[in-house]
Design goal:
By secondary structure, this protein is mostly helical. The chain has 5 helices and no strands.
């Protein structure tokens, strides 16, 4: 049970990092979705920490946000 809680917290942290960077760039979720190739629904779920996502999505989102993927993991 503890592992699930750790994963949930990590998803929330990464999602918040994505949300903050997107807002810094004054991008909408639709704009980020278009730039990254990740659906708007998935962007929304990731930002809210509600879904697991793969490295491919993380890399695409990071590129669209103009940051290295490691920045989103901090």
């Amino acid at each position: 049970m503890v592992e699930k809680e750790i994963i949930r917290k990590e998803r929330l942290r990464i999602g918040l990092n994505i949300l903050v960077r997107r807002r810094e760039l004054h991008m909408t979720q639709n704009e980020l979705a278009e730039a990254s190739g990740v659906s708007r629904n998935q962007i929304s779920s990731i930002e809210r920490g509600k879904t697991n996502f793969g490295m491919e999505a993380l890399f695409a989102i990071a590129e669209a946000l103009g940051v290295e993927y490691q920045e989103l993991l901090k």
